[in-house]
Write a structure and sequence with these properties.
Blueprint lengths: L1 H16 L3 E5 L10 E7 L5 E7 L4 E7 L9 E4 L4 E6 L16 H11 L3 H10 L8 E6 L5 E6 L4 E5 L10 E4 L14 H16 L5 H6 L6 E2 L4 E2 L10 E3 L9 E8 L11 E6 L8 E3 L20 H13 L11 E3 L11 H25 L4 H23 L2
Antiparallel strand pairs: 1-2, 1-10, 2-14, 3-4, 4-5, 5-6, 6-7, 7-8, 8-9, 11-12, 13-17, 14-15, 15-16
Length: about 400
């Protein structure tokens, strides 16, 4: 009995540590017609950064673990306008599968970013790789031709769900947490987060608000847990209390968010924008990135091999105060709400949200100019310099970091 209980605890721990919430949104469902990719990453490695890489066919930007010398990708986009991310799936591996190869999702995505231009390319890449593939995942992809959807993949086969299909995605979007629709029913994990995300997306769609701003400033920092009807954002008057904080989209193990704004079918792929919130999302800010900037990145979101990005360091320092019981194993599931929101409007989410919206507005001005003329790498570089300065100033002024 003790052995079974220990095994169950380990399974729950793994499920929590790799418990991403993700979505693929077709251009049919967005106000500007551009597809969106969203990955709210949960992981046991909290130190993430962004790197620029040159693959066999394409240059790309990738979110990686800071300590990973192999630079395996956990989300990214390339200069062909192809973008990919994943969520672990815990119900897609057949019971008859006894293969020992596993945890190659980051390797597969690194290969894809360097060599794939379209969803069809990714399918062909999977078909040519030797099996077993070493994956149990939902791979979300978009491309510059308007393609958008999920590949639900185990070691030997996959099933594609098309976000442009009224059968697969009647609302124009698909959401995945840690189970696959094609997997064993009612198994896996993430059903509660999936439920909350589904409600958030339904509300956003009704308001014509399925945008990158919604994903960055609402979905990735949501304080709702809709199975129980809890909405901690309404508890401002009691924010000094410690609250249970389990099965929210954002949680102790949340480690970064990536949102990729795709392009219209005839637009230059340089216009594809990869937004990143490094580290604990409520304490981080959204940074826009472009592959077309020629390999230059803002200093705050990248670092040399083995070192951590400054923005990630900032957010993780602020995260510590949010979880005062984290030295206990179960203490990770309890949050000091006043650090996130409070009556004085000085909570981390309240402050970063304002700054996020400012960055998004400034980016839109630049982006709108480019779509009328052409992408300008020099202007992108100068914008990065401004962001470096302003982000550091924001954390110093508000948090004394």
């Amino acid at each position: 009995m003790k052995r079974h209980a220990l095994l169950l605890a380990l399974i729950l721990l793994v499920a929590q540590a790799f418990a991403c919430t993700t979505a693929i949104i077709s251009g049919k469902a967005t106000p500007d017609g551009r597809p969106l990719l969203w990955k709210h990453r949960d992981a046991d490695d909290f130190n993430n950064k962004v790197v620029f890489e040159v693959g066999p066919r394409f240059k790309y930007l990738a979110l990686i673990n800071s300590s990973d010398p192999e630079r395996h990708a956990w989300a990214g986009t390339n200069n062909a306008g192809f973008a990919i991310m994943n969520s672990a799936s815990y119900n897609i591996k057949p019971k008859t599968d006894s293969s020992k190869v596993e945890d190659l999702e980051g390797y597969i995505m690194k290969l894809a970013l360097g060599s794939c231009a379209t969803i069809t390319d990714f399918a062909q890449m999977l078909d040519t790789l030797p099996k077993p593939w070493g994956v149990s995942a939902n791979f979300g992809v978009i491309d510059a031709k308007g393609g958008a959807g999920y590949f639900e993949v185990n070691n030997f086969s996959y099933r594609f769900y098309d976000a442009n299909s009224t059968t697969d995605a009647p609302e124009g979007y698909l959401i995945r947490s840690n189970f696959s629709v094609s997997g064993e029913p009612n198994k896996g994990a993430g059903y509660i987060r999936f439920h909350t995300a589904s409600n958030l997306f339904k509300e956003a769609k009704a308001a014509n608000g399925l945008t990158h701003e919604f994903l960055l400033t609402k979905a990735s920092v949501s304080l709702r847990q809709d199975i129980t009807g809890i909405d901690l954002s309404k508890e401002v008057s009691k924010a000094e209390k410690i609250y249970p904080f389990r099965d929210f989209i954002v949680r102790y193990h949340s480690s970064s968010t990536v949102v990729v704004q795709g392009v219209l079918p005839k637009e230059p792929t340089d216009f594809a924008t990869m937004w990143v919130k490094l580290g604990f999302q409520p304490a981080s800010v959204a940074i826009p990135l472009w592959v077309g900037a020629g390999g230059i990145l803002p200093d705050i979101i990248t670092a040399p091999d083995g070192l951590n990005a400054k923005l990630c360091d900032f957010s993780l320092k602020l995260k510590k105060d949010c979880f005062p019981l984290s030295s206990w194993t179960e203490g990770e599931n309890y949050v000091l709400l006043s650090k996130l929101i409070n009556k004085e409007q000085t909570g981390i989410i309240q402050l970063t949200n304002i700054f996020d919206k400012e960055i998004i507005a400034r980016t839109k001005t630049l982006y709108d100019k480019w779509t009328k003329f052409e992408f300008n790498p020099i202007e992108a570089y100068n914008f990065y310099l401004t962001l470096n300065r302003d982000v550091e100033k924001f954390y110093k002024n508000h948090f004394d970091l």
